[in-house]
Amino acid sequence: MPGPRPDDARWMRLALSLGARGLGRVWPNPAVGCVLVAGGRVVGRGWTAPGGRPHAEVMALAQAGARARGAAAYVSLEPCNHHGKTGPCSEALIAAGVARVVVACKDPDPRVAGRGLARLREAGVAVVSDVLAAEAEAAHLGFFTRVRQGRPMVTLKLAMSLDGRIATASGDSQWITGPQARRRVHAMRAGHDAVLVGAGTARADDPGLTVRGLGVAHQPVRVVVSRRLDLPVESQLGRSAGEVPVWLIHAADAPERARAAWRERGARLLEAETGGGGQVDMGAAVRVLAGEGLTRVFCEGGGALAASLLASDLVDRLAVFSGGLMLGAEGRPGVGALGISALGEAGRWRLERVEQVGPDSLSQWQR
Fold first, then answer.
1. 91/3 Cα distance (integer angstroms)
2. What residues contact 230, with CB distance under 8 A and at least 6 apart?
């Protein structure tokens, strides 16, 4: 079995960076990158197109043309081997005469799961796997979480004072962090399939939840969890539901009148099971979102929704913006009650990075 070569990691990093261009716009497919190299030079590059098709390999092969014959392909995920709307990428690589395929990691999708690599080997293509596998696992976390756990990856964003408050006692929260931090939040939204908030935040803040000021053409789906759909249809979300998707997750007892009003606005209604206290069960809610194809969800609160996700062990990443002010004990906490009485009951997070964003800080944490 052929092994890796000195330059493999270099070209795979390029493939991973290309794949990242598709984040937030290729669901339900993974955001894959592909680089074709011949004679030490790139002859083709590609990444998953918006909507999930064409795949990265097809895009790179189209760019390379005849130069793909005898080349090496670096792909950030195992090439598919099943027929969907188009033929499998493993067959496309074979037909193009690619001599060597290097992949970052295998695809856990049962329709692939090693079959793509096996098909390449059967055709006489040299195959190398698990090059920058850890980086690929992080890059494809949303897709992998949906395949393995039946739910999307969840990033929980918190913008808090230094003492962990998201608003004053009266509810004043604009703005705890500065314009640079808010711009960064818009970039984070753009890299996710959907933005999620609770009904309380939707009522109190009347958010638009769109990506603004970045020149981005696509918009994430805007999702609100509201058991009884008790949200004003004249809100920003209601007025724009016909232009940018709005999905409302509700319980079975949501009034028909409210359902009809939101449907008329163009919103999509998704029913989910309820849990303790009659509230929407967040485990059920994220499974519903996965069933609709979402792989990456960016949660922007509020405190009750954040606590519900954390208590249900549904948060994969934390993005905590801290503004340089104190609001005191009377301020509203960034996370609602978790019922923790001993430190040993609290889950520990691993710090990934800390950076300054304007006058504020951003710390990012992983499970």
1. 22
2. 199, 203, 258
Residue 30 CA from chain centroid, whole number: 10
Residues 158 and 249 grouped into a single domain:
yes
256 lies in the same domain as 222: yes
Read off the CATH number of the domain in which 75 is found: 3.40.140.10
Task: For residue 19, give both structure tokens.
Answer: 């794949």
Residue among 57, 234, 273, 330 flagged as catalytic: 57
Q: State which residues form the domain around 18.
A: 8-139
The model's confidence at residue 244, banded by pLDDT at 50, 70 and 90, is: very high
Catalytic site residue 57? yes
Query: pLDDT for 289-313, tens place per residue?
Result: 999 999 999 999 888 999 999 999 9
Q: Choose among 191, 221, 213: nearest CA to 289.
A: 221
Q: How many domains does the chain have?
A: 2
Domain endpoint, select from 97, 117, 139: 139
Specify whether 127 is located in the same domain as 159: no
**Exposed/middle/buried for 14, CB within 10 Å: 0-12, 13-18, 19+?**
middle
Q: Does 127 score more than 90 pLDDT?
A: yes
Q: Average pLDDT in the 151-164 region?
A: 96
Number of H helices, E strands in the chain: 12, 16
Indicate whether 3 belongs to any domain.
no
Contact 173, 205 (CB under 8 A): yes
Q: Which two tokens mark 263?
A: 């449907």
Cβ atoms within 10 Å, residue 347: 11
Q: How far apart are CA 8 and CA 104, in angstroms?
A: 10
The model's pTM: 0.93
* Cα separation values, 92 from 96, 158, 159, Å: 6, 44, 46
- Same-domain pairing of 161 and 268: yes
- Kindly report the three-state secondary structure assignment for every residue of 143-156: HHHHHHHCCCEEEE
Q: What is the model's pLDDT at position 82? A: 66
Kindly state whether residues 128 and 215 are assigned to the same domain. Answer: no
Shared domain check, 238 and 360: yes
